[in-house]
UniProtKB/TrEMBL annotation:
Protein name: TetR-like C-terminal domain-containing protein
The entry's keywords: DNA-binding, Transcription, Transcription regulation
Record feature DNA-binding region, as residue ranges: 42-61
UniProt-listed SUPFAM superfamilies: Homeodomain-like, Tetracyclin repressor-like, C-terminal domain
One Pfam family from the record: TetR_N
Lineage: Bacteria, Bacillati, Actinomycetota, Actinomycetes, Kitasatosporales
C-alpha cells in the first residue's frame, strides 16, 4: 500500500484574497532569501514584509522550510516557457542562455543559492527542488522531440538527459566551484551536449 503524505504547508492553491496573501508572502520570502539566505530566513520578518499577520504565516506555512517549498512550487509554474527557434541547436542555446542569465542575475542567483542550501539540509526542500527541475525539464522536452523529428538527433534520444547535459556544467560552476558562468561556458556546454546527442550517447538502450 502506498503511503500518503499530507499537503506541504502553503502548497494548496486557493483563490481570491487568500491567493493575494500567498503571493505577498512568497514575494517576501524570495526577497529575504536574496538578501540574507536560507539560514537567517525568519517567519516574523516575512510576515511583516508581506503585510500579513504572523499567525497566518505560521499557520499556513509552518516553518521556513514550508515557505521555501511553496516558493519552489511557485517558481516552477512561473518560469518562462520553452523556446521554439526552429532548430535543436538554437533551442538548446536558448535553454543554456536562460539558465546562465538566471544564475548570474544578482537577485535570482542569490535565491537559487539559498534554495540549494535549504535542499542540502532538509528532505522536504530537496523534494521540492527536484520537483522544480522535473517541471522545467518537462517544459523543455518538446524541443528535443522536435529536433529528433527534424533529423537533428537520433531516434530514441532521451530529452531529459540531453537537457541535463546542457545545464549541468553551468550548475557545477555555480554551485560547486564558484567559477564564472560566462556565455562561452554556456556555448561549450551546448556544443558538447549536441555532439554527444548526435553520436547517440543519449539514445535509450
Amino acid at each position: 500500500m502506498t503511503e500518503t503524505r499530507p499537503a506541504s504547508p502553503g502548497t494548496q492553491r486557493p483563490g481570491g484574497r487568500t491567493a493575494k496573501v500567498r503571493r505577498a508572502v512568497l514575494d517576501a520570502t524570495r526577497d529575504a532569501l536574496a538578501e540574507t539566505g536560507f539560514h537567517t530566513l525568519q517567519m516574523d520578518r516575512v510576515a511583516a514584509e508581506a503585510g500579513v499577520g504572523k499567525t497566518t504565516v505560521y499557520r499556513r506555512w509552518g516553518s521556513p522550510v514550508g515557505l521555501v517549498t511553496d516558493l519552489l512550487h511557485d517558481m516552477a509554474k512561473q518560469s518562462l516557457p520553452a523556446s521554439d527557434t526552429g532548430s535543436l541547436a538554437g533551442d538548446l542555446r536558448a535553454n543554456a542562455a536562460l539558465v546562465r542569465e538566471t544564475l548570474t542575475d544578482p537577485r535570482m542567483g542569490a535565491v537559487f543559492r539559498a534554495v540549494i542550501a535549504a535542499a542540502s539540509c532538509d528532505e522536504e526542500c530537496a523534494r521540492a527542488l527536484a520537483g522544480f527541475y522535473r517541471t522545467r525539464l518537462a517544459e523543455w522536452a518538446p524541443v528535443v522531440v522536435r529536433g529528433v523529428e527534424r533529423g537533428e538527433a537520433p531516434a530514441g534520444t532521451d530529452p531529459t538527459e540531453l537537457l541535463r547535459a546542457v545545464s549541468a556544467p553551468l550548475y557545477y560552476r555555480f554551485a560547486v566551484t564558484g567559477e564564472e558562468v560566462t556565455p562561452a561556458v554556456a556555448e561549450r556546454a551546448v556544443a558538447a551536449a549536441l555532439a554527444a546527442a548526435r553520436a547517440g550517447v543519449f539514445v535509450d538502450a
